[in-house]
Amino acid sequence: MNIVILAGGVGKRLWPLGRKNNPKQFFPVVGKKPLVKETFDRFAKTYGAEKIFFSTTADLLPYLKKIFPKFPASQFIVEPSRRDTGPAMGFAAAKLFLPSPDEPMVFVPSDHFIADVKKYLACFIIGEKLIKETGKMLDIGVVATFPSTVLGYTKIGKKYGNFGGVEVYNFAGHTEKPNYETANKYLADGNYLWHGNYYMWTPRLFLNALKKYAPDVHAPLEKIKNLLAGKKQKEIIKI
Fold first, then answer.
1. How far is the C-alpha of 189 from the C-alpha of 231, rounded, in Å?
2. Which of 7-16, 36-45, 51-60, 134-143 has the lowest mean pLDDT?
3. Looking at the chain, which terminus has fewer C-beta neighbours within 10 angstroms, N or C?
4. Which domains, and CATH codes, for the chain?
5. Residue 105: CB partners within 8 Å, gap ≥ 6?
6. 201-206 average pLDDT score
7. How far apart are CA 2 and CA 180, in angstroms?
């Protein structure tokens, strides 16, 4: 499975510590290592460095290279211009489609603190297995503990199963950053999880879903995929 670490954010929610010229993922917040290094180390032990990619922007690439000076250039997925999380994931999927269209991939934030690393990694191991078995896309949620208004919420449906203590449900809906009253209702309901920005699928599954549900997003990504296949990198920024 390929791991794509999302490291293109500007960290504005931790201002004034996090700034455009020093986003929070590039400095220590908990512990002695930068958050992005903590994230990398977490996955490298299980999957190996060769399966890890960084999704970032051209202006933040120097920060990553400073932390990972010997990391292969081919494993930095650099957006031609900043387009936020969705297009960044689409661009990464388009790039990974060429070598491995049907290999599971997971997008993970670069700036999360993880207390229970063993259970955290178990989610991805189980998720990879489920993608291969079912051909479905997965979203990893976090049990809500208070009515947050800065996170999205995933509604869970019928339970699919319990795998080594990791519960899996059918997806039933998503609400982006509700107001306090709605968030409080979701917390009381018990059928809503915080959306943690963890996505699992294959490049083909994701691009096909975009083609069906967001054709306006898929169309330029399809052009980019074809340009990448023809090694016409300079043409991509025009799209």
1. 50
2. 7-16
3. C
4. 2-135+202-236 (3.90.550.10), 139-197 (no CATH)
5. 1, 2, 3, 4, 92, 93, 96, 200, 201, 202, 203
6. 97
7. 37
For residue 15, which phi and psi values (nearest 5 degrees)? -60, 140
| Radius of gyration, alpha carbons of the chain | 18
Helix axes 85-97, 203-213, angle to 10 degrees: 130
| CA 167 – CA 20 distance, rounded (Å) | 38
**In angstroms, rounded to a whole number, what is the distance separating the alpha carbons of residues 168 and 166?**
7
Q: How big is the chain, counted in residues? A: 239
Burial group, residue 198, by CB count within 10 angstroms (0-12, 13-18, 19+)? buried
What letter would DSSP give residue 13? G
